[in-house]
Structures are given as C-alpha cells and as structure tokens.
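Students often ask why we bother encoding 3D structure as a string. The short answer is that it lets us treat folding as translation between two languages. Here is a chain of 288 residues written in the first language.
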Amino acid sequence: MKELVVLSGKGGTGKTTITAAFASLAKDAVLADCDVDAADLHLLLHPEVRGRMEFRGIEIAIKDPALCTECGACREKCRFEAIDENFDIMDTRCEGCGVCEIVCPADAIHLEFRLSGEAYISSTRFGPMSHARLFTAEEASGKLVAMVRKNAKMLAADEDRSLVLIDGPPGIGCPVIASISGTDLTCIVTEPTVSGRHDLIRVVGVARHFKVPVAVIINRYDVNPEMAQTMEAWCAEENIPVIGRMPYDTAATMAMVKGMTIVEYDDDVLAPAVRDAWRRLEGLLYGR
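And here it is in the second language, the structure alphabet:
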C-alpha cells in the first residue's frame, strides 16, 4: 500500500481542486481529507456517509457542584481565567491543564476528554473516503488527522486497495506533520508568487525532515512566468522534479461551481495537464 499526500504550504493554491482531479484518475485508491480544520474535498466528491466516530481531542475540567466548597483555590490558580466569579468552569477558556484538579481541597474537579469533532467513513463516485470535521474552536487537529489516516489505511486493507490519496492541510504545522509522516511521496501544489515560493521552500523542508520524497506542481504558472521560472530553477538546484505546470483557466472555477472535478468538466487545456501530472506522479510512486 502506498500513501501519496498533496500539500500546498499555503492556502489558495488549488491543492484540493487538483487532488479531486487526481481522485478521478486514480483507479485503486482510498481518499483521505486531512485538512480537518477546513475540510472541503467533500464539496467536489459528495460523499455518502456510511459511518461516524466521535473524536475526543483534549481534556476539560469538570466540576461537581455538590462537592464544591467555593473556596476559590481553583480560580486563584487558573492562569487561563477559565473560572468565573461563581466558580463555574468556562468551557471555551479551559485548556485542560489540570491545575484546578490538583489544588482543589474538596476533590470537586476532575478532567474528562470532551467531544471535539467527528470522523467519517464514506462512499464517493471515485471510491471510499475517510474524512473528518473538527468542531469550531477545538484543538488537537493533529490527533484527528492521525485518526483519518488510520481509518483510510484500514479501508485500503479491507477493500484490497493499493493507494491512499491524501488531501493535506496548508502550512507546516501539526496537522501537516501528522499528514506527511510515514508517507511514500509528497506532491506540493504551489503558485508563482513571492509567498508561494517562500512557503514551497518551507514545506519542502518539512518533507525532507521526515525523509519523504517531493514532487512539485506549479499552478497558474502563466500568471507570473518569471516567478515560475525562478521556482523551477530552485527545484532543479534541489533535485526536485516539477511534474506539472498548470495554466490559469476559468474551467477550474466553473467545475467547482458545478461540483465536478476538472477532468470531469472539461478536456480542453487544464484536464490534459492534470492527466500528465498524474502519470508522472504514478511513475515516481511506483518506480515506473
């Protein structure tokens, strides 16, 4: 089983649009949306949920009013100001550090894992999909990403599929690390801008730290050909293959409006470029 993760380094590069197109081309894949903070792959794949799982990410303090003596020790020691003047714990401020539980002389406070999101197993027109939703203002997105990947690999094993195709989150933080570690190949979708080049370099650094091979797609390369050439030159110096140069095309937007992938919507300019990039990715992934 191979794992291919598509990353971007920053939002808005077209990563999910291209990942969805790859999903339409992959013949034997399980799909995984690891952008749990702002998942949107489902908008193009229209999954039918077959199973749901609770995700409990972080602990929160719970008070037993019957035991509380309102001595104020917890409120005095809470550095997050999560306990109000009535000695009630404010869920939105509690960080689950456990200080209140330690200092409470009446043993009126304990920690419990709170419901932080949901994970889903779904069916799509391109195959099974593992995805999730992190609730608003919740944390531990890296743990939820790990859960999504675990479910995807279980699906692949159960259905005898040879590839897990991961739509990763933007940036270089904890959810990216959880998405990339242990994968076989990283495809970075970037754009020819100053910030795009900067974030490309950063996410390449993360991939190399985890010893994951990298390939690059420059999306909308013709918007700024000079910067695109600069980025290609840097990739050449770093021995990073540029496997795709996607032109700017309004067909990508029109496909999204209709809830379709690029490959399904149009076969003029953009779809052939996506197909060519996918063939090159398969070559890198399987050594063809």
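Translate back mentally: The first strand starts at residue 2 and ends at 7. Keep this in mind for the problem set.
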